[in-house]
Amino acid sequence: GAVVSQHPSWVICKSGTSVKIECRSLDFQATTMFWYRQFPKQSLMLMATSNEGSKATYEQGVEKDKFLINHASLTLSTLTVTSAHPEDSSFYICSAGRGASTDTQYFGPGTRLTVL
Amino acid sequence: GQSLEQPSEVTAVEGAIVQINCTYQTSGFYGLSWYQQHDGGAPTFLSYNALDGLEETGRFSSFLSRSDSYGYLLLQELQMKDSASYFCASKAAGNKLTFGGGTRVLVKP
Q1: Chain B contact for A77, CB < 8 A?
Q2: Contact yes or no for A92/A110 (Cβ under 8 A)
Q3: What's the count of helices (H) and strands (E) in chain A, helices before strands?
């Protein structure tokens, strides 16, 4: 199968601090990973597309300076929420496909961020 | 832009059949995916339709009509464990997914 992991699974931080979330493809290489945000009882909203070895592509309305994405290898992408505020509290989920443009996306277990 | 509409909630009893409809308005449409998500969990892939017609996977089936910009997910022989949210998602270039609002399915004994 295709397994995607995320770390940490949950994090609580103080307002103004930065939080890093890791997304790993465990048994396949992923040239592209995606980051989503999901508020309670709402749908998944695509934040950005993470490309290995190049800059991420952000969706309209997503602040690239606030949500820093790094895709340093074919199995790891990181999302850093900088200077987090309570309104950034959400469920952050990553996904990855195995490469083909039509391949199924496999989702990580998600990271629940709570900013106090 | 991309938009997908699906009902917000459906309630049914164990053993019943539920159909979740999804209409979409998207550009660069490759196909329609369906995902299941239990509370607090990650989305789990259920099915993908790139071509018109019905795809059957066990108790779940999915249908797509490109000419009608419409698809549905059919849940048969409902079980309590099927209580979850179900999302349709359109696939575009670059493997990007745009999700519908989700349908919360509540299965009652």
Answers
A1: no
A2: yes
A3: 0, 11
